[in-house]
Amino acid sequence: MDLGIRGKRGLVCAASKGLGRGCAEALAEAGVDLVINARTRGEITQTAYEIAQKYGVQVTPVAADITTPEGRAKVLDAVGHTDILVTNAGGPPPGNWQDWDRDDFIRAIDANMLTAIALMQALVPGMMERGWGRVVNITSAAVRSPVPVLGLSNTARSGLTGFVAGMSRQVAGHGVCVNNILPGLHATDRAESLDAAVAERESISMDEARALRQATIPTGSYGTAADFGAACAFLCSQQARFIVGQNLLLDGGALNVTV
Ligand code: NAP
């Protein structure tokens, strides 16, 4: 399907690997010129090179921590203006609800709520002026069904979801569609580290931990970064103009819910 976005400009945050890279690849395949970001210079530079080679689009890497004001300033400087914004950052660590202190919560809220909001505040006004824009925030299935050990994530991402619910309706009249994608279990480094946490907690092997977690998914396997990227690119397409303020759950049917 032609997504109708060839020649548009996009920013994908936290994109040297995993779900962010999946989104960057799918947008590049649709012909979008990109700025992509991650903290590790060597990895983001290599990813930018590979995507540019494979899809023949411009890809500018920016090594910066997107969760800090300085990092965002560096990224925004490289972007100038953009038509498409995909917000993403590493997720908070697992733990126990009784152990987290104020600083833990502030760090999680900064990374997984306020960073996305700051990027939208910086870039959506330009999209509104130009009469076209797409924003996808990568959140988590934990927004629909909390993961007890990921309380910091449950908290921060729910705050972002509430913000988007209101804000998306305020900008839709200017041709800007803002939505969230809620990943369930996908085969990325993040999934590996959560498998490892389960293996340690249950005193089982990594393979057993992975099998335990995959058994909770009706499709029987983790999603891939490419699955995720395809959905993201569709939400950034011309065809998605009537999709506003939605929370798209990508979890292989894992949440046993009706709506
Ligand atoms: P991943 O495979 O670990 O990749 C994370 C990417 O983000 C890397 O490119 C990393 O590069 C970059 N990154 C991390 N922190 C950053 C920061 N502060 N500033 C800039 N870039 C940063 O993770 P993933 O699985 O793709 O997950 C992406 C998001 O989806 C996370 O928030 C995660 O919690 C959430 N999620 C994932 C799953 C899943 O099953 N994979 C499920 C639910 C939610 P550098 O380390 O070089 O910065």
What is the share of helical residues? 40-55%
**Lateral arrangement of strands in the main beta sheet:** 3-2-1-4-5-6-7
Strand content: 5-15%
> What small molecules are bound in this structure?
NADP nicotinamide-adenine-dinucleotide phosphate
Strand-and-helix sequence, N→C? EHEHEHEHEHEHHHE
Question: If you had to describe this structure to a student in words, what would you say it looks like?
Answer:
- This protein is α/β, with parallel strands linked by helices and 259 residues long.
- The protein is 47% helix and 14% strand.
- It has eight helices and seven strands; from the N terminus they run E-H-E-H-E-H-E-H-E-H-E-H-H-H-E.
- Strands 3-2-1-4-5-6-7 form a seven-stranded parallel β-sheet, sandwiched between helices.
- Helix 1 packs parallel to helix 2 and helix 6 crosses helix 7 (206-214).
- The longest helix is centred in the middle third of the chain and has 29 residues, at 102-130.
- The two termini are 27 Å apart.
- The protein binds NADP nicotinamide-adenine-dinucleotide phosphate.
- NADP nicotinamide-adenine-dinucleotide phosphate (NAP) is lined by residues 14-20, 37-40, 43, 65-67, 88-91, 138, 140-141, 183, 185-186, 188-191.
